[in-house]
Structures are given as C-alpha cells and as structure tokens.
UniProtKB/TrEMBL annotation:
This is Pyridoxamine 5'-phosphate oxidase family protein. Gene3D superfamilies: Electron Transport, Fmn-binding Protein, Chain A. SUPFAM superfamilies: FMN-binding split barrel. Residues 2-57 form the Pyridoxamine 5'-phosphate oxidase N-terminal domain. It comes from Streptococcus agalactiae.
C-alpha cells in the first residue's frame, strides 16, 4: 500500500530508480514521468535504453 506520505513525495520530487542486473551491475536513473496508477502501483515511461525494465524483468523470472 502506498501511503499518503509516499504520494506526496512522488508528486513533489524527482523519482530515482535503482536496479542491478544478474551480474550485480548497478543501474540508476531519474524517472521524470513517475506517477501513481492506483494505491499500490507506480508507473513511468521507460524512454532511455530500457535497462531498468530489463533488470526488473530479470529478477521476476
């Protein structure tokens, strides 16, 4: 559940997302498009090289 405090932070600050790949190589970057979809989901547009998405999908397999 996303708290009211979390909502306020997302709405007022530049979000940064950090992930690692299978080899432990870090990837961190700003997500200027970060928004709340509902009370439990963040969404953003992956408009760079897609490494964040690749890393997240790799962990979920």
């Amino acid at each position: 559940m996303i708290t009211q405090e979390m909502k306020e932070i997302i709405n007022s600050q530049l979000a940064m997302v950090a992930t690692v790949d299978a080899k432990g190589q870090p990837n961190i970057g700003p997500k200027r498009s970060m928004r709340l979809w509902d009370d439990k989901t963040f969404i953003y547009n992956e408009n760079t090289d897609g490494q964040t998405r690749i890393n997240i999908e790799g962990v979920c397999q």
